[in-house]
Amino acid sequence: MLNKSIAYRLSVYISLAVIGVFIAFIGIFFLFNQTLIKESVKSKAMSQSTHVTSQVQRYIITTAEVAGNISDQVIFYGHQDHADLFIQSLVIKYPFINAIYVDIDSTVANLPYWSYFTYRDGDSTVIQRGSGNISSCTNEQAQFKKLIKQNETGWSEPYLCDRNNIVVAAYCSPILVETPSGQKIRVGEVICELSLNELNRQVNSMKIGKGGFAFLMSRDGIYITHPVTEWILNRSIYEVNEKVLKEDVVSTTDNVLADTKPGTLIAYPELFNFEKALVYYVPIRQNGWVLVSVLPYKELFEPLYLPVLQMLFFSVLGILIIYLTVTYIINLQIKPLSLVTKQLKRFSNLTGPYKDIPENEIDQVAESLNYMKSWYEKYLQTQSDEQKKKQQRQEDMNQASEIQQSFIKTIYPAFPGRTDIDLYSTYQPAKGVSGDLFDYFFIDDDHLVLTMGDVSGKGVPAAFFMSVAQTTIKTNALVPKANKIVEKVNKELCTNNQHQFFLTLFLGVLDLKTGILEYCNAAHTPGYVLTKNAKVKELAQSHGLPLGLYPDKSYSSAKIQLNKEDTLVLYTDGVTEMLNENNIQYGNHQLVENIKTLAGQSPKEMIERLEKSFKLYKGHAQQTDDITMLIFNYQV
Q1: For the chain, which residues make up each domain, given as ranges?
Q2: Could you report the per-residue pLDDT of 354-381, keeping only the tens digit for each?
Q3: What is the CATH number of domain 408-634?
Q4: Would you say 330 and 10 are in contact if contact means Cβ atoms under 8 Å apart?
Q5: What residue stretches are annotated with the PPM-type phosphatase domain (predicted)?
Q6: How far is residue 484's CA from residue 487's CA, in Å, rounded to a whole number?
Q7: Pick the CATH number of 199-300 from 3.40.30.10, 3.30.450.20, 3.60.20.10, 3.30.1450.10
Q8: Residue 635: CB partners within 8 Å, gap ≥ 6?
Q9: Residue 333: alpha-carbon gap to chain centroid
């Protein structure tokens, strides 16, 4: 080689270098794309798993929320003798709920029934009610007993309901009531069955590559869903053949079931004739289930074969062309170094904003810096624009708060020309805007309307709904009949309630001549009447459901005689549910005791004293709900 000509040696060296570069490039291309394909398949499995996981979590969370809502409200509906309709409506609303079981302790008084059991029977629902335990499935009875013994919320293991041959899992939520001392005790439980048929359909619909599949298993490794339907509830991951994992099955399975984060492993499933496969598993934190996706390993590399062959062909062809070209250039001695430099620059140049790369390296650096400067200036401008948008959103929120505050009555005395009545209020939103409402106005010279309400939800939407409700109340307060006004307001709110807000409302109509207060309480907190001798009467009657849910609901009313110097106290649940630094609620009992000490004071003095009491009780704890109170004194 040393005796060869310089042209020959340069041609050989350059050709060998180019060949080495191509071989290295092909190897890097293969390894890089192999990694990309693995990550792509893994990402696809993650994406599809996330979709199915979100569906599973949606069903799990919704089932738990339904059980919680029932446990919070079933005693209230039971007193109204609407508990069966309330439970049945939820089964109809959520098709993935197979059955709902409610058992209330007989110590809870004034209930027509203490047990309810609603389940699906084909396309219809069946409800049973009574005074003892009710169930229609052997497996249900066993699972329900286990859940009740846990004495807390939680999920059962999946089981087969032999009533309709559906695989289900049950969630238990205790029914709690508050004692006069503020302590909550358990007086029963609500159990909701989640049908796993829909989950099985969702999981089996996943497409993991061409031949992959997915399945769901319980926290004990039992198959909940699987392409082989005979394995569901009849086979465990612990029972797989040792060929499937080629390592300690129990240890590997324990690690998968105990892992709180997604992961991967290599397996050799029976469905793939024990061929190598990539397994990706995702734990579902709500109940410990695991979603598993399986993909044949050979599918990972099929997309690489044809591109690698094509690259080899064009690489060999390219090497041959480069060799002939370099040899020709060297032999002709036409500036071979310059030509090679240009070829290398074209070959190694990164795509960027410039099409023509200058030969001078200093110019290249200068143009690169100019480009970075231009990019940084654009970045700063983008940040400035985002800050302006943020400030604009904050200004909009402040304006919304100011608009809502303009609806709130703050000028007192409310009726300076009258000496027969006196009233005062406090309004403390937890955030910028509030869903609480209160109002007072005259229908005529002798009839005064007093309202106190609370809209479900928080923030701007609840505030808008509050404003609509307040306007609707005034519009429909045409006759001095509390229940008739409430019925009209309910119909109008149902008509325009697309977001399913609802309003709890206390509405009273006071005849100033007689002192008779007719009131209608639509699931709102009870009002109190404080007499001049410090006696407190609770207006405990409830006359119907919250407004905005059922347009055809009728409402009743009650009457109470107000005597001279009697005081009416109205408030929202933000008062009694206010938490102190120990996370303990203020409670109705403490509110009543404080009201008793304020007998003989004016409404304004009472409000100021109560506000001080709230502040002392709350301490440094955050206000979590809106606080609204209205105190009215009858002085005739």
Answers
A1: 6-192, 199-300, 408-634
A2: 455 554 443 444 454 565 567 678 878 8
A3: 3.60.40.10
A4: yes
A5: 418-634
A6: 5
A7: 3.30.450.20
A8: 419, 420, 421, 422, 564, 565
A9: 74
* CA 382 vs CA 372, 378, 395, 480, 490: distances in Å: 15, 6, 20, 59, 48
Question: Nearest 5°: phi and psi at 548?
Answer: 100, 5
Residue-wise pLDDT for 449-464, tens only, equals 999 999 987 777 888 8
Pick the CATH number of 6-192 from 3.30.390.50, 3.30.450.20, 3.30.565.10, 1.10.10.10: 3.30.450.20
Q: Which helix (H) or strand (E) holds 297?
A: none
- Give the strand pairing for 527-530 and 166-178: unpaired
- CA–CA distance, 7 with 10 (Å, rounded to integer): 5
**Cα–Cα distance between 260 and 255 in angstroms, integer?**
10
Please name which of 227, 221, 269 lies closest in space to residue 244, comparing C-alpha atoms. Answer: 269
Nearest to 87 by CA among 190, 177, 175: 190
539, 528 Cβ separation under 8 angstroms: yes
Task: Measure CA of the first residue to CA of the last residue in the chain; give whole Å.
Answer: 124
> Could you check whether 6-192 and 199-300 share the same CATH topology?
yes
- Tokens for 499, please give them: 């977001």
Q: Which amino acid is at 543?
A: H
